[in-house]
């Protein structure tokens, strides 16, 4: 028996550790460093219908125990992802979670319908925290009604389970979580980055060309953990937790708070081997805590 | 091959105002192929500062397994790095990126090497390799002022070297272009690293010459995955964009829109 295995809608994970979308490209760079088949899954970079060149630079800025980014969903577009990136990833024995983004509902639907048919795409991750969408901005991720409708529209066309990635930039994340569950979501991934600004102290100018960026890294872990903890009590669909995870203790905390698996983002930039390292450390940590399997650990904070 | 590992500090010394020369030893030196490549350094094992710092390689010695970097300590990360003493361990990811192609020039020809400020260091290994190959390098090195000039003698040992300072406190006064205007353009290839306005001026000055320019951009991962360091391209290339860390940092002149 594989004590690290986790079964989720569409996903038979050999372990609960996967790189988060946007922090791992389409895997090619990290494949030069280690065998991607070790990973539980891979959340590939957000794919939009059309090619996107992203925002002007500077796109990143370091902050205390974290970083801001405003890449702007740069990606080669659906056709090239389907023709080049996904077939290339087929050489690895690893399920792909395709992050789907767009401006209009129709864009999400078109990308979801097509990309969910790729043989190695086992689930979708609906990116509803895009800042430039219909109905005045980030409403896909911040308005429960819109989030539910979008989830339903994508569910209708997707041939694989749909996970929805929640934004933390909301008044009440539970409302959004319950809405996407009602819309038919098979799971939730959370959290995306927190909006922030860094200023150049000398000039007073924002460091990032886009002015605002998304905060990630260890700094956001307590916020992410709180949201996972709260949402786990509100929904019955599984959660893939993320937000500032860089150590094995962070992994344990997210699982305890109710995540069934976790994703690693910014930590990949600090230590490109962080994912395989955490996978290697996990069995020992389970022993130390007295748990036989990963699944026993999931949600234990709620059973105390 | 990109590796990550601990390397040991052999030597660290200040060579100009806030400019440090740091020599590390370790097996990763064997993978350092081209002049102009860089390493991505973690200056602390704490969560702050979090990200790695990209620093260019200024010289490589495969026999002793040592390499040297020259950097300016002007932020929290590089200041911490400057405090590392011999014997200390430094977490190094690299070598990264594509450096200056020396195969684009032949023995007996002249190469023009133009550096600006903290863009000067990678030209040192480049010049050494060119001299080994029988190429004659001419160096034009620009600095802000006398107190930040470094490696004048080292470059002089390799070839003719012109020093320029913006405030005129040492060498020629003005920008590197002021000196370049007075030189014969009998070189076969130019190589440059420095601020983007300087690279742009060179492209405009020598539109007919083959040139290789090293660019700088804020980086995240350093290996091409995060899309932080992209640059717009010109019509000269089919690519919509290039990444400084993994497609560069050195590009042929005309590729990056400056």
From TrEMBL, chain A:
<feature type="binding site">
    <location>
        <position position="191"/>
    </location>
    <ligand>
        <name>FMN</name>
    </ligand>
</feature>
<dbReference type="GO" id="GO:0005737">
    <property type="term" value="C:cytoplasm"/>
</dbReference>
<dbReference type="InterPro" id="IPR050074">
    <property type="entry name" value="DHO_dehydrogenase"/>
</dbReference>
<feature type="binding site">
    <location>
        <begin position="243"/>
        <end position="244"/>
    </location>
    <ligand>
        <name>FMN</name>
    </ligand>
</feature>
<feature type="binding site">
    <location>
        <begin position="265"/>
        <end position="266"/>
    </location>
    <ligand>
        <name>FMN</name>
    </ligand>
</feature>
<feature type="binding site">
    <location>
        <position position="127"/>
    </location>
    <ligand>
        <name>substrate</name>
    </ligand>
</feature>
<dbReference type="GO" id="GO:0044205">
    <property type="term" value="P:'de novo' UMP biosynthetic process"/>
</dbReference>
<keyword id="KW-0288">FMN</keyword>
<keyword id="KW-0285">Flavoprotein</keyword>
<keyword id="KW-0963">Cytoplasm</keyword>
<feature type="binding site">
    <location>
        <position position="127"/>
    </location>
    <ligand>
        <name>FMN</name>
    </ligand>
</feature>
<dbReference type="InterPro" id="IPR001295">
    <property type="entry name" value="Dihydroorotate_DH_CS"/>
</dbReference>
<dbReference type="InterPro" id="IPR012135">
    <property type="entry name" value="Dihydroorotate_DH_1_2"/>
</dbReference>
<dbReference type="InterPro" id="IPR033888">
    <property type="entry name" value="DHOD_1B"/>
</dbReference>
<comment type="similarity">
    <text>Belongs to the dihydroorotate dehydrogenase family. Type 1 subfamily.</text>
</comment>
<keyword id="KW-0665">Pyrimidine biosynthesis</keyword>
<dbReference type="InterPro" id="IPR013785">
    <property type="entry name" value="Aldolase_TIM"/>
</dbReference>
<feature type="binding site">
    <location>
        <position position="99"/>
    </location>
    <ligand>
        <name>FMN</name>
    </ligand>
</feature>
<protein>
    <recommendedName>
        <fullName>Dihydroorotate dehydrogenase</fullName>
        <ecNumber>1.3.-.-</ecNumber>
    </recommendedName>
</protein>
<comment type="subunit">
    <text>Heterotetramer of 2 PyrK and 2 PyrD type B subunits.</text>
</comment>
<comment type="pathway">
    <text>Pyrimidine metabolism; UMP biosynthesis via de novo pathway; orotate from (S)-dihydroorotate (NAD(+) route): step 1/1.</text>
</comment>
<feature type="active site" description="Nucleophile">
    <location>
        <position position="130"/>
    </location>
</feature>
Automatic annotation (TrEMBL), chain B:
<comment type="function">
    <text>Responsible for channeling the electrons from the oxidation of dihydroorotate from the FMN redox center in the PyrD type B subunit to the ultimate electron acceptor NAD(+).</text>
</comment>
<dbReference type="InterPro" id="IPR017938">
    <property type="entry name" value="Riboflavin_synthase-like_b-brl"/>
</dbReference>
<dbReference type="InterPro" id="IPR023455">
    <property type="entry name" value="Dihydroorotate_DHASE_ETsu"/>
</dbReference>
<dbReference type="InterPro" id="IPR001433">
    <property type="entry name" value="OxRdtase_FAD/NAD-bd"/>
</dbReference>
<dbReference type="InterPro" id="IPR012165">
    <property type="entry name" value="Cyt_c3_hydrogenase_gsu"/>
</dbReference>
<keyword id="KW-0411">Iron-sulfur</keyword>
<comment type="similarity">
    <text>Belongs to the PyrK family.</text>
</comment>
<keyword id="KW-0665">Pyrimidine biosynthesis</keyword>
<dbReference type="GO" id="GO:0044205">
    <property type="term" value="P:'de novo' UMP biosynthetic process"/>
</dbReference>
<dbReference type="GO" id="GO:0016491">
    <property type="term" value="F:oxidoreductase activity"/>
</dbReference>
<feature type="binding site">
    <location>
        <begin position="53"/>
        <end position="56"/>
    </location>
    <ligand>
        <name>FAD</name>
    </ligand>
</feature>
<keyword id="KW-0249">Electron transport</keyword>
<keyword id="KW-0408">Iron</keyword>
<keyword id="KW-0285">Flavoprotein</keyword>
<dbReference type="Pfam" id="PF10418">
    <property type="entry name" value="DHODB_Fe-S_bind"/>
</dbReference>
<feature type="binding site">
    <location>
        <begin position="77"/>
        <end position="78"/>
    </location>
    <ligand>
        <name>FAD</name>
    </ligand>
</feature>
<dbReference type="InterPro" id="IPR037117">
    <property type="entry name" value="Dihydroorotate_DH_ele_sf"/>
</dbReference>
<dbReference type="InterPro" id="IPR050353">
    <property type="entry name" value="PyrK_electron_transfer"/>
</dbReference>
<feature type="domain" description="FAD-binding FR-type">
    <location>
        <begin position="2"/>
        <end position="102"/>
    </location>
</feature>
<comment type="subunit">
    <text>Heterotetramer of 2 PyrK and 2 PyrD type B subunits.</text>
</comment>
<dbReference type="InterPro" id="IPR017927">
    <property type="entry name" value="FAD-bd_FR_type"/>
</dbReference>
<comment type="pathway">
    <text>Pyrimidine metabolism; UMP biosynthesis via de novo pathway; orotate from (S)-dihydroorotate (NAD(+) route): step 1/1.</text>
</comment>
